[in-house]
Design a protein that fits this description.
By secondary structure, this protein is of the alpha/beta class. The protein contains 15 helices and 13 strands.
């Protein structure tokens, strides 16, 4: 038996309305002790007041009743819709907790929904992705998964594999039955190849679309006083990094995320690269080189009044295999801008239009994603790749003339890997599928 849990589902901030959710076997008993109003039936909303244990009114509320298992969590659920002040909301929560409920852990309502069989693991992850989406593209990817498109596709794969596994099992164990379908190698292999090719395409699409899901590391590098911190502040339109005329001011990596052109960029301001003057600065410079190695995009800032020096040349050499933009800063101090193909900016005057144009071009030009409806996250991609590798082994085994009692092992592995995406791997389902699809010994 689950214990009873409670939490503020709408966020612990001042807002118009807050929702305090109570889930578990004692949920109904708790609300009866604190609610002045009619106790509703399943899927009803009742008006009334929440009182403390001394009978003092805390708030005027609406209470939603979800009795039984026919709801999102799959257990008795009470939702108190209160006025959204932090004091009011927390008073109600504290009152509920004092009557025997436990404060829910992060994601515990959704976890219980999964464990109670109300949603798949894939749907649970989609809920989290939908809530945390920061761009329209992330929202699009999350809503496709939330609307079960990904789950439907995985179930299609599972059904096809169950049928093929069932064919193998029957031909291995019941070859003497007249109503057992005879396996034809070419037809069997073509069905495996069809699943294999579709899986391969989905994996490629999912990997390509990770650029929209995961933040891209954009590292700002250059000499001391080239304008790295000024550029960071200009992009953010805020004084996040310290800017002075003293060289070597930035000693550590300063990070901040922004949304740009439907991509999430993790901007990183780094220590100026030169021969360090003290141990602390040397550590900072070492971090700068490490950030360059790990960067998705490098913004190399050059002081246009000084030009390129040996340290700039070293940066250029280190970034030759990277997505790279060379930015000539302090254009406001140059009387006649060269007509060469250079990207001039002025961090001081927040004149970054050239940077924005080039960054858009760089992101779009290197964007290999597509408009596939099926985009899976990193955990799910690992499962898809395990299934793909297992099907590779099936195809290779058939080419080598292995028997069905051998290749069925890899078919099982492919099925289990795909089932792991949804959750609750249960081999009994395979047996059910065998007897569902074929009438043995009638």
């Amino acid at each position: 038996m689950w214990d009873t849990i409670a939490a503020i589902s709408s966020g612990n901030i001042n807002q118009a309305i807050s929702i305090i959710r109570i889930v578990g076997p004692e949920a109904l008993d708790i609300i009866k002790k604190i609610f002045i109003g009619r106790i509703g039936q399943n899927k009803t909303i009742q008006y009334g007041f929440i009182k403390d244990l001394e009978g003092n009114i805390i708030d005027e509320v609406l209470v939603s009743f979800f009795i039984g298992s026919d709801n999102f969590v799959g257990e008795n659920t009470i939702e108190i819709n209160a006025h959204g002040g932090i004091i009011i909301t927390n008073k109600i929560l504290d009152l509920v907790l004092s009557l025997g409920a436990r404060e829910a852990n992060k994601g515990e309502f959704t976890r219980r929904a999964f464990l109670n069989g109300k949603i798949s693991l894939l749907k649970a992850e989609a809920i989290n992705d939908l809530i945390n989406s920061k761009t329209t593209q992330q929202h699009k990817i999350a809503i496709n998964a939330f609307n079960n498109k990904n789950e439907i596709k995985i179930k299609e794969f599972l059904e096809k594999l169950e049928y093929l596994i069932g064919l193998c099992e029957i031909n291995i164990d019941y070859p003497e039955y007249d109503d057992v379908p005879i396996l034809e190698n070419k037809d069997f292999e073509s069905k495996i190849i069809e699943i294999h090719q579709e899986l391969k395409q989905i994996i490629a699409s999912s990997k390509a679309n990770q650029v929209y899901i995961n933040p891209l590391s954009v590292v700002i590098v250059g000499n001391p006083n080239a304008g790295k911190s000024s550029l960071m502040n200009a992009i953010l339109n805020d004084e996040k990094a310290i800017v002075t005329n003293i060289e070597g001011t930035t000693r550590d990596v300063i990070e901040h995320e922004i949304v740009f052109n439907n991509f999430i960029l993790k901007l990183k301001d780094t220590a100026g690269i030169r021969d360090g003057k003290d141990e602390i600065e040397k550590i900072g410079i070492k971090k700068s080189w490490k950030e360059i190695e790990q960067a998705d995009i490098v913004l190399h800032i050059i002081d246009a009044t000084k030009g390129i020096n040996n340290f700039d040349l070293e940066i250029i050499e280190k970034t030759k295999d990277k997505k790279y933009l060379q930015l000539w800063n302090k254009s406001d101090l140059i009387n006649n801008l060269e007509k060469e193909n250079k990207i001039y900016i002025s961090s001081l005057n927040k004149d970054l239009k050239n940077l924005e144009q080039e960054l858009v071009h760089l992101l779009v030009h290197n964007d290999n994603s597509n408009n596939s409806n099926f985009v899976f996250n990193k955990r799910q991609i690992v499962c898809l790749e395990k299934a793909l590798n297992a099907l590779n082994d099936v195809i290779e085994g058939m080419n080598q003339g292995l028997t069905y009692d051998t290749i069925i092992v890899d078919l099982h592995l492919a099925w289990e890997s795909l089932k792991e995406i949804i959750g609750n791997v249960d081999k009994e389902e395979l047996l059910d599928s065998i007897f569902k699809n074929f009438c043995l010994g009638k």
